[in-house]
Design brief:
Radius of gyration: 27 Å
CATH topology of one domain: Rossmann fold
CATH architecture of one domain: 3-Layer(aba) Sandwich
CATH class of one domain: Alpha Beta
Largest sheet: 7 strands, parallel
Distance between the termini: 71 Å
Length: 642
């Protein structure tokens, strides 16, 4: 009698002569990858939570994918970006399926705006939706693609411009979806996406979709991700910020404008417009303008010093807006022979009314209430001060296994910060080393002779230091800043003083700037926090990363301010328990741009010498990889063989 077959283990894939070495001609055995895979396998088998920091180059994607597949459980993999979703689904999964010689039941899910609405496409053929030759041309591309696509995912249409206004009129966003009442419901790309997910063992999503879904899970008719037994968060350092967005609420003047425009357009298309409805919508516009004008001011985020005073100052315009929203909803409900498209519009009116009322009247001390102004947009936001209890109740206590991984989770060699901020109850933890020889590949230079970054003379002195560094590196650098103001000030001082081409964030889309940087020899990119993570430029094109200051969060930011105050009121030390660890992880992310492969070499330059002069600086050093270190600029020249 033949012995019973046993399921393969992670070790059989990852050890030096394992299955991966047979499948991939360039496979390199990485002890950290095997260690992580076995830790993930154990957490899934034993229904434990796991936090694992995996250094760049570990190969963490396969280290969690293979154990997830072997577990036989339904596992949701949540990534930081849609690009990583696509890499997993279109590259890593087919590789594994091909060599495992079995069908893998895997699907991916994105937010509704990424998918086409078939009904809108068909309506556009007979209703005046499109404006201008450009939209008509884009529509023809979309219409032909709709006939053959299986997924309906916008990412498939390579020839469609990134900012296509035609797509925004045809996508499947919830605000205009009539759900099961739609004639195309069975053929709907959202319906099919959900069906594929229900039939899958591995479901690949992104953090925004995951937390949007989690926030409405208790209203199960709105949930989109099917039930699961485990979740793996890749780029898990982003979770607190994303969760805060979705467990909070927001209302803006743009939302009211979009609602009025959509009602007007539908009334015209379906022929239910009346003079009375026109008057109500005009009043809605006027009341919204008066209400949001109260919050006009300079660009950026700001808190509210006195909510009682704010309520009193705008009570009249607030009540006017509340009443006209109620009146708008009443008119929509009275439309004779109401079309199914009115159902989501009614829902939007009620949601706006409830959000407005919460923001103006709630006294829930668990939230911080604040305002953001961007261009013409005024956004009234309410954000949970502490998401840890929400995540513990809704996620960690409900799901057997949660695995969090990133190259930046540990502070000072431990995980107390991330466990506290996210409310993770008693997880297993691991730090697995990447394959890079940091002492030889990277030199950390701290410019010890510069003034304190808070000094008025810092910008001039630091700009001269940057010029010296760029001459040594022959360009090939990211110069990263903690504020747009600093970025522009340094760029203005430096760009005409060096012989190398320069790029400035904000002068084009980030992806276009990155492509130009990769394709331009000796280029220098001046940028801010959006280039601190998720950016990959292996090779000689990026040989120097310069950071102006230790990336402490702006203390006057309303959310940061509220979290600092809450920690202090609870008897904690906000600076050492929250502000320093947060900045240490951000610095780790910024420096992580440089060494992306075994052949990369480069200098990490920090212009902020508080790291060597303040006691808390040791936490930053203990959080970073074991780079070579110097405070002598001639050592930088020697590293670059200048």
């Amino acid at each position: 009698m033949p012995p019973p077959q046993t399921s393969p283990t992670a070790r059989q894939f990852f050890h030096g002569r394992g299955l991966l070495s047979e499948w991939h001609p360039q496979y390199e055995y990485r002890p950290g990858q095997q260690e992580m895979a076995e830790a993930v396998e154990g957490a899934l088998a034993e229904k434990r939570h796991l936090v694992v920091e995996a250094g760049t180059g570990t190969g963490k994607t396969l280290a969690y994918l293979i154990p997830a597949i072997l577990s036989g459980k339904r596992v949701v993999v949540s990534t930081g970006t849609k690009n990583l979703q696509e890499q997993l689904y279109f590259k890593d999964i087919p590789f594994l399926a091909r060599h495992m010689n079995r069908e893998l039941r895997v699907s991916y899910m994105k937010g509704r705006k990424n998918y086409l609405c078939r009904q809108k496409v068909y309506d556009a053929e007979k209703e005046p939706v499109l404006a201008g030759l450009e939209e008509v041309a884009d529509y023809q591309v979309i219409r032909e693609w709709e006939k053959t696509t299986e997924m309906g995912d916008r990412a498939e249409i390579r020839q469609l411009p990134a900012g296509s206004t035609a797509w925004s009129k045809l996508d499947a966003r919830r605000e205009l979806c009539s759900g099961q009442k739609c004639a195309q419901f069975e053929r709907c790309f959202i319906t099919r996406m959900q069906q594929r997910a229900r039939e899958s063992d591995i479901i690949i999503v992104n953090h925004h979709l995951f937390f949007a879904d989690l926030a409405v899970k208790d209203r199960d008719y709105e949930g989109i991700i099917p039930d699961y037994q485990a979740v793996i968060f890749d780029e898990a350092h982003e979770i607190e910020s994303v969760a805060g967005d979705y467990f909070g609420c927001s209302i803006s003047n743009h939302q009211v404008e979009d609602l009025r425009r959509d009602i007007t357009a539908l009334a015209r298309r379906k022929n239910f417009g009346t003079q009375e409805l026109d008057r109500v919508l005009m009043t809605l516009d006027e009341c919204a303008d008066r209400f949001f004008a109260v919050f006009a001011g300079k660009e950026g985020r700001s808190g509210i010093p006195d909510r009682v005073e704010l309520r009193e100052s705008c009570e009249a315009v607030y009540q006017d807006l509340l009443r006209v929203l109620e009146l708008t909803g009443a008119h929509l409900q009275l439309v004779k022979g109401a079309t199914d498209e009115l159902i989501p519009l009614n829902g939007r009116v009620e949601e706006l009314r409830q959000t407005l009322q919460f923001w103006m009247e709630s006294d829930d001390s668990d939230f911080v209430y604040w305002i953001e102004r961007r261009g013409r947009g005024v956004y009234l936001e309410a954000t949970p001060i502490d998401v840890s209890s929400l995540l513990r109740d809704k996620l960690f206590d409900q799901v057997d296994t949660i695995i969090l991984t990133s190259a930046t989770l540990a502070v000072g060699g431990g995980f107390e910060y991330v466990k506290t901020r996210l409310g993770i109850p008693a997880p297993r933890t691991a730090i697995v080393q990447g394959p890079f020889d940091y002492p030889k590949q990277a030199l950390l230079y701290v410019a010890n002779g510069l003034p304190d970054p808070r000094s008025p003379s810092f910008t001039e002195s630091a700009s001269e230091e940057v010029i010296r560094l760029l001459e040594m590196s022959k360009g090939r650098a990211f110069v990263l800043f903690t504020s747009y103001q600093q970025m522009r000030a340094f760029h203005d001082r430096i760009s005409f003083e060096i012989e190398y081409p320069t790029l400035l964030q904000g002068t084009g889309p980030n992806h276009a700037l990155l492509d130009e940087f990769r394709n331009t020899p000796h280029c220098v990119l001046f940028a801010t926090s959006s280039f601190w993570q998720g950016v990959d430029v292996p090779g000689d094109n990026l040989s120097c990363v310069i950071i102006d200051k230790l990336p402490f969060a702006v203390p006057t930011d309303p959310v940061v301010e509220a979290r600092v105050r809450a920690i202090r009121e609870a008897g904690g030390d906000a600076f050492h328990d929250y502000q320093v660890p947060s900045a240490a992880l951000a610095l780790k992310q910024g420096f992580g741009r440089l060494i992306r492969s075994r052949s990369d070499r480069g200098v990490l330059a920090l212009l902020d010498n508080r790291i060597t002069k303040q006691r808390y600086g040791q936490i930053f050093f203990d959080s970073l990889p074991d780079y070579g270190f110097t405070m002598q600029i001639n050592e930088v020249a020697r590293f670059f063989d200048v």
